[in-house]
Write a structure and sequence with these properties.
heterodimer, A: two-stranded antiparallel ribbon, 11 helices, 4 strands, B: 691 residues, Rossmann fold, 6-stranded mixed sheet
């Protein structure tokens, strides 16, 4: 491969990673936009989601990457896996909100965030203690179809990942901007107290935000599994922090910002690994996180002001 | 008193009676209350020193105890940052890593540059040795002493704390947490990716053991245990002294309400950096101790889970409570290294006995992180103050004390006011001179070209409808909001664009419309923070507590009580109560007392009588008048026109950010423009018709 082809390939990879980070970043941004809470539990909702996705695929007797499905069975199995993962992850988010965070509503400071760290630890260790520390082979029934583009290859799964991400993000965008509950959500994000007085059921809005955010984390988890062909108890932390960086970069609280930020972080990861060295990828991404927060805290498209107290 | 006696039998359960009997019968009952903590501390340290003998020199157990001490030291350091100053640091282990690698690199054979003449003086100082190689040139072998490295590591970590804190500390709580998390991850990654110095992921090896009186510590855990004890004693001493000083009060003020802290003269940047640096220094010294004990260091020892573990210890023991976090760290370490292991062994034995297979395979020690998570969530939901709360609840006033007749005049006002010191500006030029002040929030012009002067020893009232820019005027003058243009001179000095603590330092104090006291601090602590700018104790003074510091502290306390006495028996009986238990009117009074404690020449009062009933309003108006007669210059925002008329020499009327009228109260009162702004056009026409 010539160097152009190498970079083109990394751009394709970066877009796939970016789609995953964007979906995961949306969960941070939805919850932050409404509660001003950085939800560390989201990291491991994502991780649990990947195990749910794996279990859903294994229900059909799939294991590893050798069993290929085509046609109707493929569509059926994938649809089932997506619905199962999104629902379970979404429900997990709702449970976390209801039992760990709702009792703390209205308490100022970092109490909520410390609680989500605790919840994240609980999820992490429950998975670690039940499935063990190894990494698990993630079933991938997609046919190995690929198209050569300028020396690089575009695989079917990359295309599928893009389509899934695009559909979900368009759906979310329409939901937030066109539906009644979406309007209530935007109103609550602006001013929860005023929204409550105008008859918005704020609790319902918050539950919806947790459900949608966590369900999107479930989708991101399935994409992770299909992209990397494995899952493990440990995947939540790195992916979660990168997605959080994406949310901050795009402007936390902004739905479009999370999408843009996700794509940028995906591309930085893929191209940065190519240009510098993979072992420095984390340093690059954490540096972006620190620099954006310090020098441009509203991110690319955000409205939140992280220095206000 | 009668109420209390009748209430007693209600709580007289058998347990409480037994407890009360034991308390009366115990030897401690005959000791004066202020000596009791000292006896407790002495007993704790005596036990800790005898501990290695008590457990019969079991090296593994002493080793675990030494580890527990290291984590207690880290918890104490994080407590300064999170507990005292309220800055959530999720990357605290990075400073631990810096201290650990500093000693690890300078006391091992890991990093050996080529020998040259440059190193001769260092060799003479015994910091390095010339290492002879049979082939190739000689190398430098670093042999820096552990005892020297302990303070150096603390200093190095503090330096990185300041370097990292300077740009980031203005972020609010959760963002700061994320930035520190990022920093906390970057440090171990650098350690991993820099193998020539740190040996990368393999970790340092062959770190030299400390030597004492020519003897190497070797591999026995006991000397490390005693060094750890010394470290902990020093850190507890440092924490306690700082907490109970001007420094500690400034930190807690920042934690409770950053804006109010700045407005009361606390230099936020300086004190946040100080907290960060001292917290980092604790971690740096502990890092050196820990790596000397382990004689190795790997990047994994300093990642996010370690930072979280230290946070769990602080949360569990009690955020902000010195003894609490030590207890929290020790309990969790005991749980980790003894209890869970032993419990697993018992379960295995039980499993063998009753023939249950899965009981024999349980390894509870691996579930420690699950326990950490459960502790975090449980504490946050049910006991946020931790095992040993940082602030002790004071018994509520009895019904008799609460409903006591208000006594205001134990001494004539003039005599009592003398106690609060010199609050008179003795000049003839205007004390406050504002010219062309414009403040803009995005598209909204909150103040447009406002100018006003405040003559010394006068009372100026600022009135105007809601949203007319009155509070913005105060915020712009005191430095909380940056004006777009205009000049503000105070006592001859230009103060526009000066930070709030500088404005207060010059002698301008304020209160807030929506009351910004420090809710979890006591009445006295709130007033003492008002004195912050007038006191001089620094970190070193607070640690040493020399006679000069003690005198300053005692004088400050007495002065604050004098100021509280201005309000008769309203606040004095409640000096040790936390502010969140005060009534609304008392909070208003306390905020004025806090402002007076800064010894101001000009007092800005933002709706001081808001929410008070007519009697309370009258009482406060009288007190404000007394202050003015004593020489204090006052600017007040007020909606109650009778208060304005009775107090003000001059009235300024704002509407939509512009000054529409100015003059003596009874002139302004008849001004048509003013009536229109307050009551609408038809009222103005009506009043004109009547006139």
């Amino acid at each position: 491969m010539g160097w152009e082809a190498v970079y083109l390939q990394q751009v394709i990879n970066g877009l796939s990673l970016g789609a995953m980070y964007a979906l995961l970043a949306l969960g941070f941004t939805l919850v932050y936009g409404i509660l001003e809470l950085i939800n560390f539990a989201h990291f491991n909702v994502f991780m649990v989601g990947s195990f749910v996705g794996m279990a859903a695929l294994e229900l059909f007797g799939l294991s590893g990457q050798t069993q290929i499905l085509t046609g109707f069975p493929l569509v059926g199995v994938m649809t089932f896996a997506f619905i199962a993962t999104l629902s379970v992850a979404g429900a997990l988010g709702v449970i976390i909100e209801r039992f760990a965070l709702r009792p703390l509503r209205g308490i100022p400071g970092t109490v909520g965030m410390i609680t989500t760290i605790g919840v994240s630890y609980i999820l992490f260790n429950i998975v670690l203690l039940t499935v063990g520390a190894g990494s698990w082979n993630f079933p991938n029934p997609l046919p190995r179809i690929s198209w050569p583009i300028g020396g690089a290859t575009l695989e079917l799964r990359s295309l599928l990942i893009w389509i899934i991400a695009l559909v979900l993000m368009t759906g979310l965008h329409l939901f937030v901007n066109k539906t009644r509950l979406g309007k209530a959500m935007r109103a609550t994000a602006q001013d929860a107290e005023a929204a409550r007085m105008m008859g918005v059921d704020v609790d319902r809005v918050i539950v919806t935000a947790f459900f949608l955010g966590s369900a999107l984390a479930g989708a991101a988890a399935l994409i992770f599994g299909l992209y990397y062909n494995y899952t493990s108890f440990i995947i939540g932390y790195t992916a979660g922090l990168r997605a959080f960086t994406a949310a901050v970069l795009g402007g936390i609280g902004s739905v479009t910002g999370a999408m843009v930020g996700g794509l940028i972080i995906g591309l930085i990861e893929a191209l940065g690994g190519q240009l510098i060295a993979v072992r420095w990828t984390d340093v690059i991404i954490f540096s972006i996180l620190v620099l954006v927060l310090v020098f441009a805290p509203t991110g690319l498209l955000g409205r939140a002001n992280p220095t206000k107290s | 008193m009668a109420e209390r006696d009748t209430a007693a039998p209600r709580q007289g359960t058998i347990g409480a009676e037994v407890f009360a009997f034991l308390r009366r019968a115990s030897p401690l009952a005959r000791v004066a209350p202020h000596v009791r903590p000292r006896i407790g501390i002495t007993l704790v340290f005596a036990f800790a020193l005898l501990f290695p003998l008590i457990i019969d020199r079991n090296d593994a157990d002493i080793d675990s105890a030494a580890n527990a001490l290291a984590f207690a030291a880290l918890a104490l350091g994080l407590n300064i940052v999170v507990g005292f100053a309220g800055l959530l640091d999720l990357g605290y282990a990075a400073f631990f890593a810096i201290g650990a690698y500093a000693y690890g690199v300078f006391a091992s054979a890991q990093f050996m540059p080529a020998w040259s003449g440059f190193w001769e003086p260092f060799a003479w100082l015994q910091l390095v040795e010339r290492f002879h190689q049979d082939s190739g040139g000689d190398l430098v072998h670093f042999t820096v002493s552990f005892w020297l490295m302990l303070p150096l590591s603390a200093g190095l970590a503090a330096f990185f704390g300041v370097l990292f804190g300077a740009p980031t500390l203005r972020l609010k709580g959760d963002y700061l947490a994320i930035v520190t998390l990022g920093f906390g991850e970057i440090v171990p990654i650098i350690a991993r990716n820099w193998p020539s110095v740190t040996n990368g992921a393999m970790g340092l090896n062959g770190v030299a053991a400390p030597r004492f009186l020519g003897q190497s510590f070797g591999i026995s855990a006991t000397p490390y245990y005693f060094v750890g004890m010394g470290l902990i004693a020093l850190l507890i001493f440092t924490s306690t002294r700082l907490k109970l000083s001007r420094i500690g009060r400034a930190w807690m003020a920042i934690r409770e309400d950053e804006i109010a802290a700045a407005a009361m003269g606390v230099n936020r940047v300086k004190f946040k950096l100080l907290a960060f640096a001292i917290g980092a220094a604790f971690a740096g010294a502990t890092g050196t101790f820990y790596v000397a004990k382990l004689q190795t260091a790997t990047p994994e020892m300093f990642m996010f889970p370690v930072s979280v573990m230290i946070l769990v210890m602080v949360v569990f023991g009690g955020i902000g409570s010195v003894w609490g976090v030590v207890l929290g760290a020790i309990i969790l370490q005991i749980l980790q290294s003894w209890f869970l292991e032993d419990l697993s062994q018992w379960l295995h034995a039980l499993g063998r006995l009753i023939g249950v297979e899965w009981l024999q395979r349980i390894e509870l020690a691996s579930s420690i992180e699950l326990i950490f998570g459960i502790i975090l969530v449980t504490m946050m939901l049910y006991r946020r103050q931790g095992l040993i709360p940082a602030t002790r609840r004071v018994q509520a006033l009895s019904l008799a004390e609460q409903t006591a007749t208000v006594e205001l005049a134990a001494a004539p006002p003039a005599q009592r006011l003398r106690a609060i010191g010199d609050i008179t500006f003795r000049g003839d030029e205007p004390l406050l001179d504002i010219k062309g002040l414009t403040v803009r929030f995005g598209g909204l012009v909150a103040l447009r070209e406002v100018g006003l002067t405040v003559p010394p020893r006068s009372v100026v009232a600022v009135i105007g409808p809601n949203g007319s820019g009155k509070s913005t005027l105060f915020n712009a003058v005191t430095g909380l909001v940056a004006p777009e243009s205009g000049n503000v001179r105070f006592a001859g000095y230009p103060i526009e664009r000066q930070p709030p603590h500088v404005v207060l330092g010059r002698g301008m104090a304020r209160t807030f419309q929506n009351i910004r006291l420090f809710p979890n601090l006591t009445v006295l602590e709130n007033v003492m923070i008002g004195m912050h700018a007038r006191l001089h104790t620094g970190a070193v003074g607070a640690l040493l507590r020399l006679p000069a510091t003690q005198r300053e502290e005692a004088a400050a306390r007495a002065h604050c009580l004098d100021i509280l006495a201005l309000f008769g028996n309203r606040l004095i009986p409640r000096v040790d109560h936390v502010v969140s238990s005060l009534s609304y009117a008392n909070r208003r009074r306390l905020e004025i007392a806090r402002a007076l404690a800064s010894n101001p020449k000009l007092l800005l009062l933002d709706e001081p009588t808001a929410g008070m009933n007519p009697a309370e309003t009258l009482e406060l108006a009288g007190q404000i008048k007394n202050l003015n007669q004593h020489g204090l210059t006052i600017v007040l925002i007020e909606h109650k026109l009778d208060v304005v008329v009775s107090l003000a020499d001059n009235v300024i009327v704002l509407d939509h950010g512009e000054k529409i009228a100015e003059g003596p109260p009874d002139v302004v009162r008849r001004d048509e423009e003013v009536i229109r702004a307050y009551l609408g056009r038809s009222a103005a026409i009506g009043s004109a018709a009547v006139a």
